[in-house]
Amino acid sequence: MDARSKVIDLAAFLDRLDRGDGEADFRLGALHKALAELGKTEPSRAKNVLVALSDPTEEPIARAPGKGAVGAWPGASDQ
Questions:
Q1: Contact 65, 57 (CB under 8 A)
Q2: pTM across the whole model
Q3: Contact at 8 Å (CB) between 61 and 79?
């Protein structure tokens, strides 16, 4: 039941995005990439979802661009 409610919450979130105005930011693309991983049958789905939402860089940056996590990696062009 817990997974069911999470899927319904995610569907409701995506419905709200569809009804909204404005351009989507980088997080929506990362979310769609992560969701695509859920349809696969490999036993590494959780890892692949985490990777889809994570910063792949290994070099530290001099200063964080904000005060907290934003939920996905914006990509090299925004660094």
A1: no
A2: 0.76
A3: yes
